[in-house]
Every structure is written in structure tokens, then in C-alpha cells.
Protein: Flavin reductase like domain-containing protein
Amino acid sequence: MRIAAPELSPEQTYKLMSGIVVPRPIAWISTLGPGGKVNLAPFSCFTFVSNTPPMLGINIGRKAGQRKDTARNILEHGHFVVNIGNAGLLDAIHASAEEHPPEVSEAELLQLEVVAGEQIATPRLAAAPVSLECTLHSVIPFGDTGAEFFVGEVKLFHIRDGLARDGKIDTTLLDPVCRIGGPNYALLGPLVTKRALRQTPKSVMDKDAA
Ligand SMILES: Cc1cc2nc3c(=O)[nH]c(=O)nc-3n(C[C@H](O)[C@H](O)[C@H](O)COP(=O)(O)O)c2cc1C
Structure:
């Protein structure tokens, strides 16, 4: 089967792409909404884009041409928290994607406890095993649907005690969830370990040599 990309509608393209780029990790983003309410929503077009400084990227689409609450809140305040949920939080992750008016806090609706931010004013989720306090680095628009790629710089890592060993996250303990598409998710299956490959150590670029 061959499909010419320009013949697809935005909806058809989304269906195909989201079924091809799988499984996707989920950034469960808390932001400050109107009146200081904590907005919460999951985003799976999510990856990291730099390690020094640590930076994450999330693609946020639009609803009927309008920015989603998360995007608006990030632009207004310049900071947000990427919480990482686990399998025990999957129902709440899914439910937090329900559309609500901007002044409604999904964290409150779902009775999720929040903890004040330390380096930013956005609170994080107490139940999340990992939360990353981020400041907005840049926003890059892509394509014709108004989607925007938000890049955040991680200022503070909150990692539940016991989850990291020798600076590495224990993935089995983390028990992450991934999005497949629509209401479908995947849990961590068996880990497969291959022989370690030699890798040149990561380094910082000489500013003049770029
Ligand atoms: C698991 C999951 C992943 C999602 N990933 C994205 C995404 O990457 N980008 C996006 O724009 N919307 C994504 N959505 C949809 C948003 O969560 C949804 O539009 C939500 O209502 C946005 O909330 P907000 O208006 O409070 O920001 C996802 C939904 C689910 C359930």
C-alpha cells in the first residue's frame, strides 16, 4: 500500500502518524491556569531534545484553531511541570485529557494532590514518581494546523527515593505507560538487554566550533 501524503486530511494524517510513531511516552503536564488553578493534561508527542542543559519538547495541537489550556498557560507564565505517571495512575492520566473550561482544574477534579514548585510557581503532582520543573525555552510552529513544539529547560528533577541507582532510573520500578492511540495504551513489557556498546562520552560543544 502506498499513500501520497498530500491527499490525506489532517484527521487521516494524524491517525496514520500516531499509529506509526509508537509507543510514545507521556508528559503529564501541570500548568497554572486562571486564578492559580492547576491545569493538567497528558501529551504524548514528547521527547527530550538536549542533555546539557536538559531540555524536553512537546508538540501541542489546537482545538478548533484555538490553543489548548496547557499551551496558553505555558505562554502566559513561562513555566510548567512535566510529570511522569506510572501504570497505577493510568486512569487519572486518561481522564485528565477530558476537555474542560480553562478555569476548571483537572487536578482538583481527579482529587490529585499537588505540591508547590521549588524553582517555578507551577505545582507538581504528589503521586507522580518523577516530576520535572521546566522553564519555557522556545516555541516553534509546524505545519498548517497551528501545532506548536514547546521546548522546556528542566531546572529541577524530582525523582522518588529508590527509583534511581547510580544516576540511572530503574525502568521496571518506574513502571511507565505509553500511548498507542485513542484510548489505547501500552505498559512496559519484558526488558531485553543486549551487549553494551562502546560510546564516545557526551561532551559540550566548543562555542566557536559549532
Ligand atoms: C495519552 C494522551 C496523549 C495526548 N497527547 C497529546 C499531544 O501530544 N498533543 C496534543 O496536542 N494533545 C494530546 N492529547 C490530547 C490532550 O490531552 C487534550 O486535548 C486535552 O484536553 C488538553 O487539555 P488542556 O486544554 O487542559 O491543555 C493527548 C491525550 C491523551 C489521552
